[in-house]
Amino acid sequence: MPIGDTVPLTAIRWDDILFVVLAAMLLGSALLVVTMRDIIRCGLAMIAAFASLAGIYVLLGNPLIAATQVLVYIGAISVLVLFAIMLTQTKNAPARLVFQTQAWAAALAAVVIAAVIAISVTATTWPSAGAVAWTDTTRVAELLFSDYLLPFEVVSVLLTAAVVGGVLLARRDPDENEEDRP
Amino acid sequence: MTFATRTWDRMSLTSRLVAILVPLALILAVGSVVGILVILPATMDFLRANLPLVRFAVAVVGILVLTIPTAFVLIYLELKIIARMNLRVGPNRIGPWGAAMSLIHGFKVLSKEDFTPTGADLPVFTLAPVVTFLASVMTLLVIPFAPGLFGQDLNIGLLYFFAMGGLSVLGLLMAGWASFNKYSLLGGLRAAAQIVSYEIPLTLSVVGVVILAGTMSMNRLVLAQSGSALDWFAFKQPLAVLIFFIAATAEANRTPFDMTEADSEIVAGFATEYSGMRFGFFFFAEYVNVFIVSALLATLFFGGWTAPFNWPWPYNLNWLDASGIGVLWIPIAIIATVVVADVVAVAVRLVGGRSWSAPSAFGLGFLAAGVGIAAVVGLACFIAFDWVQGIFWFMTKTYVFVFTFVWMRGTLPRVRVDQLMGFAWKWLLPASLLNLFVTATAVVLLNQ
Questions:
Q1: Residues B160, A76: C-beta atoms closer than 8 Å
Q2: pLDDT tens per residue, range B214-262
Q3: CB pairs under 8 A between A and B
Q4: Which of A5, B9, B189, B388 has its CA 20 to 30 A from that of B413?
Q5: ipTM of the assembly?
Q6: Which CATH number fits domain A1-91: 1.25.40.20, 3.10.450.50, 1.20.120.1200, 1.10.10.10?
């Protein structure tokens, strides 16, 4: 007999179990990001959070977004973040709490953000999820280049500006001496 | 002393053997009858009802197992080919022509001390080789080896490939950081900078192929090149092949771009503090990566499992079908072996006379018969099954590129790290953009 949609002897769907597991992983690793002291481990926990999110995207029927999530957020952004941390920090960085000098301001900001999220979540009428529709790559491309062409172009201009800015910042001064370089 | 032990002591050796073997045989017989009649059909039904799941599980186990012979063959090839290029003999002690050398390497690595340096970040240090190895293995899931022989045919296969392949840098970065060693850290940083830089031209160079084929599924990319060698994308995208090859060399951390483990500069890079099987997994992953990159090159640009010329004969000849004579081919092969061995032995004795002793004549006969039968069976399978043909062409193409990578390692000196980065951003990236624009323009113009 085939394994059905639900767990044997219960009415729980496999998808739901997977979702709960992935969501727990996502929340757990996100919590680790902000509670751990070792900043590299925080970065690695962030990668775990991104990976769980990619799993949830697959579960929602969009492997394209999931693959992009892994490719961009884990493969590029997180790696660059880790790179920057490793380049600037040493392993014997201060072990005491260096992040808690602005604890009051942070607490205030957290309360405000929590209130905003709570209000927006309760104020939104959530549409009930229909059947999971598998997203077609061609369809995404059609939408991107017809309905959403303007945002797409604006984002590309923004990215180009960021690249030019990065090059300008990293550029060596032409009249700088060879010996003066760090 | 109980009755049983007293009887046991009085029994002779033969009766003791009988007393053990007869019940054992009975249990086995009953067990196999029950197994064949009850458990086997139920299991088969269950497996047949869940075919997609079973297929997935088999594919995952298959690619995991496949990495072992692949890495062993690649290590041996590298040892031997580079030795020949350096006018050395290479491994020649263990096995025929030293072929079991990589096996010995494996056992050596397994039996070494698994050392963790003081100050190392233990969980990260332990996880790093796992991440690198799994990232390599998971990319194997979408590579089509032959018609119908692939892990999963994802419609975003190529994107999945690059997403998973990009994860290997994470392992190197983790290793570099967790080792608590400045050379390891330098190696990890170099790995991150190099792989993130070379990933961009690598991914951009295949976009031209995706535009031409109109799909990202690896299987359909191969089918889009079916026909003869002239239909390969290599001839429509020559610049992309070059960019892909160079960028893939850097992605796989192969010489001349192996800055991450440049032993003349930073000891062994990220792997400095690793020993035992953790070290082994890094190099396992590296050799699997070489295979994967070669396989991707063959799949995307050189027709994958399609034959390089129009194959004139039809597939699936009836006489090898299981419903026909089927299993009977095995006894036929055995009888043929014996007959051919006898004939060759007698011929050798008649022609060579006294110089051949009877055992050596028969040995020669069996060798000739074995080689002959293997050749006949191989040829028959090659003609009869399209997947045997597919594997043959796929592996031939892949190992040509594997040889090229080894060849490059034996020939080219290592580049400098600033040259490496400059080359990626100043030459490869503009070249891949140019390739993309030209391809897109050509497709738009030709499709009007």
A1: no
A2: 888 888 888 888 777 778 888 888 888 999 999 988 888 777 877 767 6
A3: 85
A4: B189
A5: 0.78
A6: 1.20.120.1200
